[in-house]
């Protein structure tokens, strides 16, 4: 079993391998019987915002759905994702041999037998008003929790009834054994930044946002969830959205807006601490904190290493230094000197980090997925396929 785990780590073609080799030794000496065991997650329940939305917003608000070229790289059609292809949550599902997650909000063709996705683009942890052009979604984390609270007994009822719908619902035991994944918080910061809050005010709201986050996680635990995989928030100050709206903000040595990333870091430090407390409160849960910030930031610090170029420039956007505009988004059309200009894809999204100014390309998502799933960026340092509760 240990062999299996160590072999697996060799798949990752990066310098993390040495760190992982250490991890093999550490886990072996800890508890060889359990430490080497892969988790057999039968389902995934995901909560979050656009970074993990597989079509929830599109189903609810057709006017806001991502249009082509979104989806072109992998799905060859818009697939409810703000991306040219797959999201990190898609790579996770594939790694467990599970189907892509159906959005809870989609009443057409949804198959929840292996989980459900409650994430919705524009979602915040605390319900927020829109900030100018930046729209938020009404499906806050608290509402996503309520949807899950409804989902669980209804799924049981529908399975019990038999008929065509029964097989589209998860089995009862899947709820305890599933992986519960989270990627949310960035929009809480964005709303503050693009609204009229100062950086200090946004930063001061962070402890409240994080405490709301962990309260919701606890509520989901109380419904039977035991294995949690929780992403921290990415380097928001590296996104064309922030770089364009705050042109004069001081940049760091990798071209990112420093103060904005500091607030993201403050969110992450708060979250990491809060999850450490939660781990003590809920000893029967496996709670994994995932430092997705560091992995995403490395794409801006060292793009060539991963085969990327122009990391701060949107592939599918319009105008300015960062190919980003507040008034027209990817797949939209804008009028310039009486001519209609379609906002399409750059030529090679596979060598680009940022898709539309806010979201990452499929290529970047794949790199991020590979790195976070290895266990080198998680607390505790456990790979994705071992991040389950030990019985
Ligand atoms: C629902 O998904 C499961 C798991 O992928 C699959 O085996 C099953 O055939 C699907 N059901 C339908 C009706 O598509
Ligand atoms: C989170 O904040 C919202 C306000 O946006 C509040 O209604 C909700 O009760 C809070 N949830 C938790 C679990 O603290
Ligand atoms: C910020 O304040 C300005 C001036 O008071 C106002 O015009 C603008 O609508 C405000 N923006 C937001 C997002 O509240
Ligand atoms: C943000 O707030 C934290 C306290 O939660 C403080 O330690 C940190 O210095 C603040 N950072 C900024 C950039 O204001
Ligand atoms: C900017 O976006 C346009 C679509 O509006 C795209 O054609 C172009 O290639 C992008 N520019 C860069 C440098 O990626």
From TrEMBL:
Keywords: Glycoprotein, Hydrolase, Signal. The keyword Hydrolase applies. GO terms for molecular function: hydrolase activity, acting on ester bonds. Residues 1-35 form the signal peptide. The keyword Hydrolase applies. InterPro entries: GDSL, SGNH_hydro_sf, SGNH_plant_lipase-like. The lineage of its organism: Eukaryota, Viridiplantae, Streptophyta, Embryophyta, Tracheophyta. This is Zeta-carotene desaturase. It comes from the Eukaryota. Belongs to the 'GDSL' lipolytic enzyme family.
């Amino acid at each position: 079993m240990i062999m299996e785990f160590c072999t697996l780590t060799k798949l990752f073609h990066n310098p993390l391998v040495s760190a992982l080799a250490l991890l093999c030794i550490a886990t072996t000496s800890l508890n060889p019987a359990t430490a080497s065991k892969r988790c057999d997650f039968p389902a995934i329940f995901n909560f979050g915002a656009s970074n993990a939305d597989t079509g929830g917003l599109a189903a609810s608000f057709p006017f806001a759905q991502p249009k082509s070229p979104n989806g072109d790289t992998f799905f060859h059609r818009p697939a409810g994702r703000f991306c040219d292809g797959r999201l990190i949550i898609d790579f996770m599902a594939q790694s467990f041999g599970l189907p892509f997650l159906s959005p809870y909000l989609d009443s057409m063709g949804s198959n929840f037998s292996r989980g459900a996705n409650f994430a919705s683009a524009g979602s915040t942890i605390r319900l927020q008003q829109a900030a100018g052009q930046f729209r938020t979604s009404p499906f806050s984390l608290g509402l996503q929790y309520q949807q899950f609270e409804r989902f669980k007994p209804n799924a049981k009822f529908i399975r019990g009834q038999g008929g065509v719908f029964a097989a589209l619902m998860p089995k009862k035991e899947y709820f305890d054994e599933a992986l519960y994944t989270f990627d949310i918080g960035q929009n809480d910061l964005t709303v503050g930044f693009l609204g009229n809050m100062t950086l200090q005010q946004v930063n001061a709201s962070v402890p409240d946002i994080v405490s709301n986050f962990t309260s919701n996680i606890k509520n989901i635990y109380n419904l039977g969830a035991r294995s949690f995989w929780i992403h921290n928030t990415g380097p928001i100050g590296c996104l064309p959205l922030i770089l364009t709206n705050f042109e004069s903000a001081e940049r760091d040595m990798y071209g990112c807006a420093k103060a904005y990333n500091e607030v993201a870091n403050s969110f992450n430090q708060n979250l990491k601490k809060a999850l450490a407390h939660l781990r003590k409160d809920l000893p029967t849960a496996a709670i994994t904190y995932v430092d997705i910030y560091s992995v995403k930031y490395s794409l801006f610090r060292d793009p060539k290493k991963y085969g990327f170029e122009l990391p701060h420039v949107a592939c599918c956007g319009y105008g300015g230094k960062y190919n980003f505009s507040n008034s027209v988004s990817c797949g939209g059309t804008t009028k310039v000197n009486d001519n209609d200009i379609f906002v399409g894809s750059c030529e090679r999204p596979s060598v680009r980090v940022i898709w539309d100014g806010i979201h990452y390309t499929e290529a970047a998502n794949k790199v991020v997925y590979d790195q976070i799933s290895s266990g080198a960026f998680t607390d505790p340092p456990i790979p994705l396929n071992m991040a389950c509760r030990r019985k």
